[in-house]
Specification:
single chain; 104 residues; mainly alpha; 0% strand
Length: 104
């Protein structure tokens, strides 16, 4: 066998990869973007947190809650980038509740 020869097993695998790549691309594209509702929630949470940060809570308990909400928001952004939209939504809902509580 020469160095440039491909075994029949490899030929089949290459052929399958070529045939399946468009199918996998289409299947992956349906959930490749977050829903508009999730994008809106992320914006809302970021704005609320910015507002609370601008007010600058001085009480240690409120500062800890603000930090917790900011960490949840940051975690959600990473989850959105990774395509884990369900976890991102859960974290944003928690961060939103904390931000709402702090802004009242």
């Amino acid at each position: 066998m020469r160095d440039t020869d491909i075994s029949p097993g490899w030929s089949i695998l290459v052929a399958l990869a070529v045939l399946l790549s468009p199918v996998l691309a289409v299947a992956g594209s349906s959930s490749s973007r977050p829903s508009p509702e999730l994008v809106q929630l992320e914006r809302e949470v970021s704005l609320k947190l910015a507002h609370v940060r601008d007010e600058g809570p001085t009480e240690p308990a409120k500062r800890r809650k603000l930090q917790s909400a900011a960490l949840l928001d940051e975690k959600a952004e990473k989850e959105i980038e990774a395509g884990d939209y369900r976890s991102a939504e859960d974290d944003l809902v928690k961060a939103n509740a904390i931000a709402t509580e702090l802004s009242n």
